[in-house]
Design goal:
Number of strands: 0
Low-confidence stretches: none
Strand content: under 5%
Radius of gyration: 19 Å
Mean pLDDT: 86
Distance between the termini: 19 Å
Helix content: over 70%
Number of helices: 12
Structural class: mainly alpha
């Protein structure tokens, strides 16, 4: 039975190992940043002129960027599952088993390292967004809060993906399975278009979709919701930061124990 201090120490070591891997395999960071940059440019300049229904006084760039941020960090969380599945395939988990270390440290180190990768992706996207017309119209504290909401939610999704990686055990299947779930969650949301354009059943789903509330919370904290804009008529979008935090707590409460248990079963084989 390891102590909390030992778990923290082991987690730091695993986190460093995963971050060093990013440094030594620059393809990881290149492709993690190219995709969101392409989305920003494509939606801003190709689709932006065709999308209407925005609140008066807001540009599509300011409407779009929080949605791109949310999409990127959610899709970025799939790296966790794929990386764990890859480590299982290569036998690295068996090597960890032979070491006197905390079992949960492998998962903690993986999810924290991927959180760092998301920080890099958001930084690149923010700079790209500033270049295409996005602006932060709030205080520094509120802006930091917006980025924290995005990152904390992504950290929770990483634990869900960690469980998928342990159960599926092949990176290719992890990517396919994750895409089936995450793609509709991100596009059936307010990330790219106003919800008013949705059919009634799909709009009801999107209003309570946690991705929508992550986007709405980020927009409000970045000051990308103009004064006088219509107030949403559902509780989730009226209190997006709180609703997102509640979802984050629920996801972590469910999937952290499940992922650790799945890892222990895997490591005991």
């Amino acid at each position: 039975m390891t102590t909390l201090a030992e778990t923290v120490s082991d987690s730091v070591v695993i986190t460093k190992r995963n971050l060093i891997k990013v440094k030594r395999v620059p393809d990881l960071i290149v492709f993690a940043t190219l995709s969101p940059i392409m989305f920003v440019v494509l939606f801003r300049y190709i689709f932006g002129g065709a999308i209407g229904g925005l609140p008066p006084g807001i540009s599509y760039a300011e409407f779009l960027l929080p949605g791109i941020f949310a999409q990127t960090v959610v899709f970025g969380s799939t790296v966790t599952g794929a990386s764990i599945a890859e480590d299982l395939q290569k036998g690295l988990i068996d090597r960890f088993r032979s070491l006197p270390m905390s079992r949960s440290a492998v998962l903690i180190g993986r999810t924290v390292a991927d959180l760092g990768l998301n920080v890099i992706s958001i930084t690149v996207m923010a700079l790209t967004g500033l270049a295409v017309g996005w602006r932060i119209n709030s205080s520094i504290g509120e802006a930091i809060g917006g980025f924290l909401v995005l990152l904390v939610f992504a950290f929770a999704i990483s634990w869900l993906m960690a469980l998928v990686g342990l159960l599926v055990r092949t990176p290719e299947v992890v990517n396919n399975a994750s895409f089936i779930v995450i793609f509709p969650l991100t596009f059936a949301s307010n990330a790219f278009v106003p919800l008013e354009s949705f059919p009634a059943p799909l709009r009801a789903f999107a209003e309570w979709n946690p991705v929508s509330t992550v986007v709405q919370a980020a927009r409000e904290l970045f000051g990308n919701v103009p004064a006088g804009a219509p107030v949403p008529d559902v509780w989730s979008l009226q209190n997006p930061a709180l609703y997102t935090v509640l979802w984050t707590v629920v996801i972590l409460a469910i999937f952290v124990p499940l992922a650790v248990r799945a890892y222990l079963r895997t490591a005991s084989r």
